Predict the structure.
Amino acid sequence: MSRAVERGFARTRRARVSGFSLVEALVAVLVLAVGLLGVAALQMNTLRNNQGSLQRTQAVTLIYFMFDTMRANRADAEDGHYDIGKTCTVPAAGTSLVSQDRHFWLQALKDNIGDLATTCGQISCPAGAATCTVGVFWKDNRDASGPEEHFEVSTRL
């Protein structure tokens, strides 16, 4: 090949080789930004679901804690002394074991699930009944318009 042909080939090759245009770079940045926003939205949903799962786990744990407390004081539980209707306020800790148990249980609900007016507890263990039921009610503090969460477990003492 002659030198003139080689020079012409080199010029043609240089003219064809070019970098990204500004429009291509902006489109790439736009696609990346949309992807990152999607990842951020998924992360937010994951955190919200994780918090809800933690609250449900704590509610069930505290329900079983109350059952264990009632089993330790079976005579008062079987006589119906632990019964309380759905209450969202923590009662004062009295001098009796039952009033202290109820106080500390409701305070634990407020401490672990959320210290809101919608965090409530309920115990139904009627005298002479074969089973006792403990319920926990709360509302997710991140979604005030959402439904009330509720767990209720029944067991024999």
